[in-house]
Amino acid sequence: MRLKPSTELKRPLPDEQDKEVDRFLADERAKMDFHEDRWLYWIRVILLFFVLLMTLAVLFTFVFHIIMPQEWRWLSIDESKYIRDLAVTIIAGLIMSIVTAYYFKKR
Fold it and tell me: Residue 78: which H helix or E strand, with range?
């Protein structure tokens, strides 16, 4: 006469249960990180687009005041100088960021 195995032996051992729980929690954390990364990506894209539009507006205003006749200009000479300084700062920052990104990407 053979004894039937106990149903308790069919359940995973405590160490295996812990591993399953750890795997489940790791999968859930990875899903949360993916969703968070996706939201941060879109926030960065929107902010970069906004900064691009503002930069183009400043540069357009600067160029407009250089090439158009005096009657069409709405900024004073001092304001034009401020716009010029702002445009130079934007261009310098853009060049530095491109060079930095290229340097670190290459390494």
Answer: helix 77-106
Report d(CA 105, CA 18) in Å as an integer.
41
* Stated length of the chain: 107
Q: What is the DSSP string of 9-67?
A: GGSPPHHHHHHHHHHHHHHHHHHHHHHHHHHHHHHHHHHHHHHHHHHHHHHHHHHHHHH
The CA distance from 52 to 102, in Å, is 20
pTM exceeds 0.90: no
Q: Which long-range contacts (CB under 8 A, 24 or more apart) does 10-16 make?
A: none
68 φ/ψ angles, rounded to the nearest 5 degrees: -90, 155
- pLDDT tens-digit readout, 56-81: 888 888 888 889 888 888 888 888 88
Please check whether residue 56 is in contact with residue 70, taking contact to mean a CB–CB distance below 8 angstroms.
no
Give the number of other CB atoms < 10 A from CB of residue 80: 15
Which amino acid does the sequence have at 6? S
Q: How many CB atoms lie within 10 A of CB 56?
A: 11
